Amino acid sequence: MSGAGDGIAAQVVQGPRLELEPLRPDHADEMAPLLDDTGLHEFIGGEPATLDDLRARYTRQAVGRSPDGTQRWLNWVVRLRDDGAPVGTTQATVTEPDGVVTAEVAWVVASAHQGQGYAVESARAMVDWLREQRVEVVVAHVHPEHRASMAVARAIGLVPTDVVVDGEVRWERRN
Questions:
Q1: Among 2, 37, 1, 6, which Cα is nearest to 101's?
Q2: What is the pTM of this model?
Q3: Per-residue pLDDT tens for 104-130?
Q4: Helix ranges (DSSP H) in 14-63
């Protein structure tokens, strides 16, 4: 069965200071303490996942594809290159609406590591890599009051559209 982004699988992606490492279920052990922060949910809602919930989520995501094959799931742990410490995650969900390879992207940087440009660097590295994989459209949904995420979206070449989904503005870039 062919589907969204056939042949695209998460690989190690390098940035100047960061490395994006393909997500594995065992990453939950080191990521849970970093993501156990209600402040990270200010704009997206919900609560921090428990360790067990995060393990289950990472196990599903690490498969790399939705059960019906219509989505490729590309997830990475973002690490500092100098010491390997995790600072956050990036993700891309690749689909092919109307035959156009499209990636919906997102990023999270742990509160303790914010304000150092890691979100921009990791998102840029991911989007540049996606373009190399022949992704034609990159999309992010950003809460209209989340200034930091809007700045990241702008820095990686996305522009806001008039589309609002669940209260979030669709930002887009066509490659």
A1: 6
A2: 0.91
A3: 999 999 989 999 999 999 999 999 999
A4: 28-35, 51-62
